[in-house]
Amino acid sequence: MKQIEVQIMGQSYLLGCPDGGEPQLRDAVERVDAAMCKIRDAGKVKARDRIAVLASLNLAFDLAAQQAAAVAAPAALAATAPAPAPAEPGEADAKASQLIQKLDQALAGDGHLL
């Protein structure tokens, strides 16, 4: 593990970094710095620790929203995917007839569907 020096809101920090992880760490530092500077520049919060907490919450919320979208995306794609074509031309009609018969049997006391 090596140490790298970074700047967040104009203050230097010495961070431990695993081998090969420097690009990801620098990207994370850049995101945190941008989030904190945005809150500071809005002028409503002055204390560095409060700015850090608000920036952390904003970043965590964004990450949770991205994860929820990633989970929902495959389900949405599956719902809009076209149904597979039947192997033979009359196969869909045969399956529909079987389903209608099963429904008729289940609803025998209430009458037939068709």
UniProtKB/TrEMBL annotation:
From the Swiss-Prot or TrEMBL record, state where the protein is found.
Answer: Cytoplasm
Q: Which domain of life is it from?
A: Bacteria
Q: What is this protein called?
A: Cell division protein ZapA
Which Pfam families has this protein been placed in?
ZapA
**Classification via PANTHER family:** CELL DIVISION PROTEIN ZAPA (PTHR34981)
Subunit notes for this chain?
Homodimer. Interacts with FtsZ.
Which GO cellular component does the record give, naming just one?
Answer: cell division site
Q: Known InterPro entries for this protein?
A: Cell_div_ZapA-like, Cell_div_ZapA-like_sf, Cell_div_ZapA_N
What the protein does comes down to: Activator of cell division through the inhibition of FtsZ GTPase activity, therefore promoting FtsZ assembly into bundles of protofilaments necessary for the formation of the division Z ring. It is recruited early at mid-cell but it is not essential for cell division.
Q: Which UniProt keywords apply?
A: Cell cycle, Cell division, Cytoplasm, Septation
Keyword Ligase in the entry? The reply is no
| Organism (species) | Variovorax paradoxus
Set out the biological process GO terms recorded for this chain's protein: division septum assembly; FtsZ-dependent cytokinesis; septin ring assembly
